[in-house]
Amino acid sequence: MRIDVISIFPEYLEPLSLSLLGKAQSKSVLEINIHNLRDHTSDAHHTVDDTPYGGGAGMVMLPEPWGEAIDAVLASATGGTRATLIFTTPAGALFHQRRAETLAATEWLIFACGRYEGIDARVAEHFATRAEIDAVLELSLGDYVLNGGEVAAMAIIEAVARLLPGVIGNPDSLSEESHGTSGLLEAPAFTKPAIWRGLEVPALLREGNHGKIAEWRSAQAVERTRAVRPDLLPEEG
Ligand code: 6GU
Predict the structure, then answer these.
(1) Are 88 and 112 in contact (CB under 8 A)?
(2) What is the 177 CA–ligand 1 centroid distance (Å)?
(3) Whose CA is nearest to atom 10 of ligand 1?
(4) What is the Cα–Cα distance from 20 to 174, expressed in whole angstroms?
(5) Is residue 118 in contact with ligand 1, taking CB distance under 6 Å?
(6) Is 141 near ligand 1, meaning CB less than 6 Å away?
(7) Is the distance from the beta carbon of residue 152 to the nearest atom of ligand 1 less than 6 Å?
(8) pTM (predicted TM-score)
(9) Which run of H or of E encompasses 85?
(10) Ligand 1 centroid to 153 CA: how many Å?
């Protein structure tokens, strides 16, 4: 998979070269390119924003630098690959595991990380009409506001990239984790020692009856989901 990220803070995205995503890039399972929006400005001050039409607080990102930057990324396409263009914004649709799975099945993601009060709305509208682009998405991590889309883009990239074949050492961990196929949160996990600070690991988990363990884990998953995320349970959502 190829991923391009456009931001005014390219340094923000440096952690993408660490750990499992770094390894995936050296194995060529994944290619990540980071671009500085300011390289696509044409004035001496490298201006990227201006005051909003209609008034109001804050600044809006100019369409021209975004247009140029996304054009430049699209111009580097190889072999007619089509991209999904993602704007990270608190005004977007909620990003979740099902969306991560959909995105992991695509070949190319381009992230536009907005700051301030967002990017001039015509940018998304324009690129939705471009032949090189399959889909334009506006995605949010959740109901809170971050200073910019960089952290959100990193979260989405990590959630998507770990689903690519060869990124996670043991692919079984993908189906058994929270938000996996069951749609429930994962049961609590324990390791050695069996007793730590007076707290004992449930005996059943140490007895090796795999049927009973599976039963215990699904009951725990339901209980935990009901307690902290009742909205995930089909009957209560
Ligand atoms: Cl994608 N961007 C910003 N700025 N804030 C957010 C977000 C995105 N998702 C949740 N809060």
Answers:
(1) yes
(2) 24
(3) 141
(4) 14
(5) no
(6) yes
(7) yes
(8) 0.95
(9) strand 83-94
(10) 9
Tell whether ligand 1 has an atom less than 6 A from the beta carbon of residue 6. Answer: no
**pLDDT tens across the length of the chain (237 residues):** 999 999 999 999 999 999 999 999 999 999 999 999 999 999 999 999 999 999 999 999 999 999 999 999 999 998 889 999 999 999 999 999 999 999 999 999 999 999 878 999 999 999 999 999 999 999 999 999 999 999 999 999 999 999 999 998 888 878 778 888 889 999 999 999 999 999 999 999 999 999 999 999 999 999 999 999 999 998 755
**Cα 194 from chain centroid (whole Å):** 36
Residue with structure tokens 């938000």? Answer: 179
Instruction: Please indicate whether residue 155, judged by its CB atom, sits closer than 6 Å to ligand 1.
Output: no
Question: d(Cα 85, Cα 149) in Å, to the nearest integer?
Answer: 14
The predicted pLDDT at position 236 comes to 55
Alpha-carbon dihedral sign for residues 158, 100, 12, 39: positive
CA of 147 to the centre of ligand 1 (A): 8
* C-alpha closest to that of 176 among 218, 205, 211: 218
Identify how many contiguous H helices and E strands the chain contains and give both numbers: 8, 9
Q: Which atom of ligand 1 is nearest to the CA of 114?
A: 4
Could you tell me if the CB of 117 is within 6 A of ligand 1?
no
